Structure formats: C-alpha cells, structure tokens
Task: structure prediction
Amino acid sequence: MKNKSLLWLLFGATGACLLPWYALEDGFWAFTWIRSLSDPEYPSALVLILEQSHWWLMPPLVALVAGFIAIMLPMGRKGLSRMLIAVSLLGSFFVIVQGFAIGLNEPKIFLSLLEGSSAANGQPGLGVGAIMLIASFLYLLTIGIAGLKKGTADIFIIGLIGTIITLVGVFVFFPIAHVLITAFETADGGYGASRFFSRYFSGEVWGLNCLVGDGVCGPAINSVFLATMTGVGTTLLGLTFALIATRTRFRAKRLLRILTVLPIITPPFVIGLALILLFGRAGVVTEWSYALFDIEKSRWLYGFTGVYLSQLLSFTPIAFLVMIGVVEGVSPSMEEASQTMRATQWQTFTQVSLPLMRPGLANAFLLGFIESLADFGNPLVLGGDFSVLSTEIYFAIVGAVADTSRAAVLGMVLLTLTITAFLFQRWWLGKKSYATVTGKADSGQNSGLNSGLKWACYLVAIPWAVFTAIVYCMIVYGSFVKLWGYDNSFTLEHYISTFGVKTEGGLRFVGSAWDSYITTLQIASIAAPLTALLGLLTAYVLVRQRFAGKDLFEFSTMLSFAIPGTVVGISYILAFNVPPIELTGTGIILIIAFMFRNMPVGVRGGIAAMSQLDKSLDEASITLGANSFTTLRRVIAPLLGPAILAALIYSFVRAITSVSAVIFLVSAKHNMATSFIVGRVENGEFGIAIAYSTVLIITMLAAILLLQLIVGKRKLRKDTRVQNTENKTRLVQANI
Amino acid sequence: MNTKSASVKLDNVTKNYGAVTAVINLTLAIKAGELVTLLGPSGCGKTTMLRMIAGLEEVTSGSIQFNDLDVTDQSATYRNVAMVFQSYALFPHMSVLDNVSYGLSVSGFEKKKIKAKALAGLAMVGLTGYESRMPSELSGGQQQRVAVARAVVLEPEVLLFDEPLSNLDAKLRRHVREEIRQIQQELGLTAVYVTHDQEEAMAVSDKIVVMQRGEIAQAGSPSDLYQSPESAFIADFIGDANVIPCTTVSTDKNTAVISVDGVLINSTAAKTISTPLNLVVHPQNIRVSNEESTTSLAGKIQHAAFLGSHIEYEVKTEVATLFVIDNQMQSRYQKDDSVFAHLPKNKTSLVPA
Ligand SMILES: Nc1ncnc2c1ncn2[C@@H]1O[C@H](COP(=O)(O)OP(=O)(O)O)[C@@H](O)[C@H]1O
Ligand SMILES: [Mg+2]
Result:
C-alpha cells in the first residue's frame, strides 16, 4: 500500500513540478513543451507559483506534500488510509475550485479574494500537469478507500470504479449540467426559473396548431408524434420479419440477416438521400409516374412522410433483431404444451405466444421511440417544414443568430422525453417478464404459423425487403450518375472529385474528401478500442463486483444511451469551450464524445457475455494466487473474444456513421466524413454526398472483415443459440 | 513433495448477507494435515464458510487464522489456499498443462520449474500424456483430476473442496473420492471438504463438522458421530437413524434402563439426563419378524422395498414409524402385514428430544 501510494504521489509530483500545468495551444502531442520545460511559456504549477505568483495553485501542492509526509509517518493501515483520503479529497477540491474560480479572461467567483492578484488576467484550461495531479489524487483516494475496507477489497478494482465514476461524471453529467444551467439563463445574463419554464412550456415548442388551426405544430409535438408512429411501425415490421425468420421455412433467411447489418453501417442520412433519388422532385419514381400517369411532380417527400419513411427503413432492422430475441425467447415447450391441449396454431399464437411476447413488444416500441426522437440525419435531409426537436436544436446553434439558451431549452425538452422513455423502458424490463431466456437451451420446436398469418407476414415483409434493397441499390447507382434526373449519364466524376489522387510529382491526394476521410478513420480507430475498453471494464465491474451504490453506478453508465446526439453536441460545446476543461476544436473532444456515446454498447455486450462466464473461473484464478488484473487479462479477456470484437466493431462503425453530435464538434482542422457529407447535401451536391457515403459503407465493411480476421472467433460453448440472440439484442438496445 | 500445510483456526466467524445470516459464530480448529469435512443439508452455510476460508467472501465478524497468523484481512489472492470448485472451473481457453501451470506462473516461478512441477502434478493424478488436450476434450472425471492437480501443485497451506464430486456419476464418485483422500494423505495436506453426502463425508474425513442453519451441530470423527450423536438431527442426518420418544426408568454410571412404550431396554447412559428423551436406533439394528419378544413393538408394514442386497421396511408402530434395513432377508413381508419390530438390547444411544 505504501509503495503504491508513493508511486502515485511521485506521479502527481511529476505532473505538478515538471509538466505544463495549462492546456497548450499547439496540443500536448506536438511535444513542443518537452524541449523547453523551463520555458516560461509552458510553466509547471511549481514554476507558476514561484515565478508568476499563481498562489492559488499552492493548496493542491501542499496536499501532495502532506501525502508524502503521511506515508513517511509510522502509522497503521487504517490511519494511513484516512490520511490519504483526506489529502486526496482536499487536493482535488482545491484544483477544481481554482479551475472554476478563475476563467479564461478573469476571475469568476471569489472576486474580492482574487482582486489585484495575477488572477486578473485569467488562466487557460487545465493541461497535462494538472490532469496528472488530479489522477494522482484520484488513485490515492481509491488506495485509501481500499485500505479502509477489510478482506477482499482490491486496489485495482476500486481504482477502476473510481476511474469510471470520474470519467462518467466529467464527460456525461458535467456537460448535461451545463445544458441545464444554460437553459436557466435569463436574457440579462443572470439565472432564473420563470423564463426557463415559460420557454420550456411555450407554444412555440408544444404548439398544437396543426390539429386545431391551420398552422404548424411545435417541434416537441412533432417529435413525439413521429416517434410514436416510428415506434409502432418498426415494432410491427420487426415482428413480421422475426416471425418469418424463426417460425417459417422461408428460404432466404440469410438475406434477412444481411438486411439487419446494413443500417448499422449506413450513415443515418443516407437513406434519406436514397429516398430523394427515388421520390424527390427529380426522383426516378416521380419522373416515371409523371411520364406514365401524368401525376404532378411535388415535394410530398419533404416533411413528415419522408422522415417517417426513412426512419422506418433505418430502424426496422434493429427492431427485427430485438424481436428475434423476443420471439425465440418464447419457450417452445409452452407452445407444445398448448398444442397438446388441442389448441390450433392460431389459438396458440394469439393466446400463448403473443401474450408472452408482450413485454418484448413494448420494449421494441420504446427503443424505436427513443431512436426516432434522437434521430438527426433523416429529419435534417427530409424534414422540410416539419420541424423536430433534434434539428431545431441544431438550427438554434448554427442559425443566423446562435441562440445557445434556446438550444439548451430545446435540449432539455428532448432530454426529458428520451429519459422518460428510457426510464419507462427500464422499469418495464425490470418487471419480471415471464418469457425470459433462462440460458438453459430449451429443446423442442417452436410451433409454426398458421397459413393466414404466414401469408400476411410474407405480404408485408417481402415488398418491404425489396423496397429496402432498391433503396440501397439507389445509393450505389446514384453515385455514378452525373446529375440525377437531368443528366443520367454514367460518370466517375463524383469519385474523382472526392477521392482523386495525382501521381505526378509523387502521390498526392487531391480529392476534396481525403482530409475528412483520413481524420474520420484516425479518430474512429482511436475511439473504438478506448470505447470497447471502457465499456467492457464497466461491464466487468458491474457483473463481477459487489459494492455500495452499484445500481446507481449502472444507471449512470447506461444513461448516455438516453441522451440524444444533438444534446451531447450542445452540452459538449457548452461545457468544454471554456476553462477549466477546454477541448473544443480538438480531435480529443470527438474521441471523448464517441467514447461516452457508444459506451453503453460495450457495457451491454460485456454484461451479456460476462454473465455467461461462470464466476468460479475468476475465483479459481484468484485462489490460485492471481490478482484481479491478471485474472482480467489472462482469464476473462481471452474468453470475451467475440464480445470484444462486437464492441470494437460497433464503436468503430458508430464513430464513422454518427452525425448528430459530431456536427457540433467538428472544426476546420478536424472535420469528419459525415459533417462533410451533410455540407454537400446542404449545397445540393447529391452525387458527391452519395459517392462519399458509398465509400464509407465499403470502408466499414472492409474494417469489419479485417477486425474479424484479427480478433478471430473462438467457439467455446456448444450451444450458444439462445445466448447469441440475447447478446445481439442487448447490443442493439444500446445501439443508438 | 513436501508441503507447507497449515493449521486453521476459525474464531467466532459470522457471515451476514443483508438480513440473511449464513454462518453464525462458528468456531473450529483444524490441525495441519487433517481433512475436515463440512457436512450438512443444502443452504446450511457450508459453501459460505469455505469461501470465507478461501478469502472469496469477507467475514462479517470473527477471525480466521492460518498457522496462528491472522489472515482475516487478506484477500484470496494473497492467502496461500487453493480450491477445487464444484464446476471444476478449468479455464476453457487453456490446455491442461496451462491450466495446471497457471497458479505457478502467476506466482512468478521460473518457466522450467513450472513445467516440471505441473508435469509432476499431472502424473500424480494419472494424467500424464494429456498435457496438450483442451479441457473440453476430457471426460468429467479427468477434468476433475486436472482441477485437483491444478490446486495441489501450488502446495497450498490449505486445500479447499466445494462438493468436488457432485458432477460425477455415482460409480466414479466412489473412485475419485478415494483418490482425493490418498493424495491428501500422501502429501499431508490440510484440507477442508464440503459435501452434503454423509457417506462421502464418512469415507474421506478425519473429522466431520455437521452444520445446521449456519451453526455447528456436532463435530467429531466419523465413528463418534455415528455411534454417539448428540442430537436427533445428527442421528437422523448421519446414520438415517430412528429417533424414538422414550422415558428413563433407571440410570447408573454407564447404562440406563429406558422404556419405549412399556418395552424396557438398556442403553448407554445419556450424557444429559434430561427429559423428554429420544432413543436412537440405527435401521440395521432393528429386526422384523412375526413373533413377539420382550423388546418388540407391534406394528404394521407400511412400505417395503427390495433393493437387492437388502430390504427396506417402514413399520408403523404406536410410538413411531420405524425405518428398518433387513440384511438377512430370511423372510419377506408385504405391505399391511402385521409384524413385530425388535429393538436391540444395546447399540442404542440417547439424545435429548
Ligand atoms: N451471495 C449471497 N447473497 C445472499 N445470500 C446468500 C449468498 N450466498 C449464500 N447465501 C445464503 O446463505 C445461506 C448459506 O448458503 P451456502 O453457504 O451456499 O449453503 P450450502 O453451501 O451449505 O448449501 C443460504 O441461505 C443462502 O441463501
Ligand atoms: Mg454449497
């Protein structure tokens, strides 16, 4: 314990005395600071105190010194633990307070105390040195806590829990708190509730004029209406496909499975684009029906209809995956029991299977509901005058006058809706459902569908599948067409202008998309392993450890599932634009945004996979003398191969396809593919947008195959049928 | 192989899971090199106690000592224990050799030594030649032996078994338990063995600790427990004995004359001459016939089962329904036959009711 404490104290001391305290203009990774540690331009905390009289940095350093003294004193384990806890709590408190007290240009609080000091000039955000010091306090705290507990408490585990709590606190709760605070801002810069409530409940947001008068409804009403319709639609379509996949001898089941992968690797607005190519004013269908039936060309696609159609296309496959789990979760023995009691297939379906599926249906509905609320890409492309919350938030920020306060209020409205749905979903799932998968593979056959129902399913599903296929063909086809609807000749122009290379005078990437493409790949490949790691470690802690407040811990790690990307976007620009944490304009903010947005995927996948690993494997390792870290590395991680792969793929792909949060956080230096494409769409350059999207889809397919090769698949268990679907279901549920 | 077997002391150990108390004030001393079995019905706290010795569960109060050193605050990683799990818990992604080497390699032995020790361990359980197999390519009994080898090669201070045989079929169980006992004695290991099967416990143990609802009901050698149970629970649990209400007629130093429904018999004097009393009679010691005698109770056959080597009867009498095992099988009785059950003149003991 003393050794570990000393190590962390030295780590903190290095940060405080040798490394730059403030965030650097040219970034830490430029390593310019290394050449000039003594340079006053990159001062450490110690230098700042001694030479620039930043006396407010003293208290944390004093705490650090107290830590050194504490481990030198002859003290019992309990005493030392208490000292370490006190030292680290005080130390981090001082760091945080000074960070908030002194803003970029001037002090914010404690004005009289700081008056006349060098604080008057303000200070930049925290840098490497500060982060190391805070980390050192964090781990001293966890060492102290471990020391106070008896027996099985493990420094590694408590450190891990501490790390996750801190990260989630800083990158999920802190930004959301900022949105809340901004929403309460009054016109004169103060804070007050009355203005917030009047805006929160205003007719502009909740207006019902589309029902009673002849005006338009508020975005909140539109969002809820759309989400309800999408929830119902995707659930029914998903159920139809699931019934076909599991209860019939339909030949092309594999094709169905492929359809489920597509939306995962499709950037969210691409479906909207394809719909424009089909049904827009210059769309194929529009042209034909004009030519053949003289149906007038109109803009019917832009508005509720178009958004609804694209959301159905985008989210049905996910509902399908969820519903497969639900349908397979109905134990065959129950259906067999029903049939032995002389019930017909139809009676069995309506009176046994369907009631058993009811909780699953509700769950699928709520998922579709949340996804629709959070969806940004489709409404952006197809919304027209039909305004929904997610796009309104965006327009409040990028509009003629950026109105962060309005964006924050709208963000709160959206957040309220998604979190309500999320809580409802958890409450619903928390209730004991009778159709749970026991993990024990049930033998026997699910009963088939009666022929009426079967044909009804085929009648819905096959046209829909064909339609989906056409939509995807459009995407590829459209990228080779010169000017859709006007000049339909074949061209490679779009690919050349985006991904052209010149070979004269060395290889040069002259295409306009290269920059954002490479940035996207870089950021996605950094974010993916970090996300997977964070998610799986969280899952490990949740499944394998017992500690006070675990439920709350779980809830907060899953919460980011319910925070729509647009809200993440504004919350990050509100929270990380000013000291103490300045991240806007960097690539790091994108990586962090991806990590915490996609974390629930890894957590759910990890939980599902780890619950199937017998706990006695860990315990065997522990009793054989391994510590938790070794156990995690040598026993658990190798056995989680498929879950790791899934988490990696999901987080990689999500980082590439996501647009809602990204669009707020990109900068000239770090532009991302999706925001580049959205820019092209807004300029009406559909050809380029679609060509780029096609390249992205192919890139992701290639990456998935590559990852699969690298990580490899292990087959350890004989019967994983039920578990696998369960696994997928959970991944999908987190996949928003 | 020399071992570093430790003595184990449990001092007033209590374990609460919220409102549930799994183990209550348990005190027990285990000598080095001894195999002690924790025996008791399901849910009585055996596994919990074992896991506390391993360091996998924290004690709520009390202390645990190995070789008189307090290890209560040490986690499992740092206690020198090894455990054989009910499910074996072999690492499915490692070969047999890697499984057996695991504990050695995480404790930082050199590579050569690890391999030599692991091979010796495998040889001891008779699995030489199986090194490169994966656990899934072994039968249940072989997996069991790998689990034992993996635990034993660490030369633990204490070796723990949690129902190690429950996943084997009945025939194999008998064989493996003898193997385990042999290895334990050869190496002089201190072992704590959990089972709910009294026959298994009798076969392997130096000492049996019978637990009931988180407490020790009685501890002692197998023959002690069988011959002089201290409670009706032990009598029933250990020997399937009949526990018959009775009264004392007279006692002297060593023997007592007692009356079961007017039938007088001798018994070893009860340590506690409390009333009411129960007479403990093992089923093999009751004889069934259709002739009356001075020690017989009249009754009716309620159930009869022919099991090849013996017949089991349930005889309903005025005082109790008696369980009888007839090894002689000179005559056979059917359900509803009127018979006499003859209590033995001695070989009985008394327990408080
Ligand atoms: N992790 C736990 N949480 C709550 N109660 C538990 C836990 N483990 C065991 N128990 C309870 O403690 C009691 C003893 O359990 P256990 O030691 O497993 O019994 P045994 O191994 O003798 O069958 C039981 O009542 C059981 O329900
Ligand atoms: Mg048990």
Summary: Chain A touches chain B at residues 150-154, 614, 616-617, 619-628, 630, 634-635, 638-639, 714, 716 (CB under 8 Å). Residues B 46-47 surround magnesium ion (ligand 2) (CB under 6 Å).
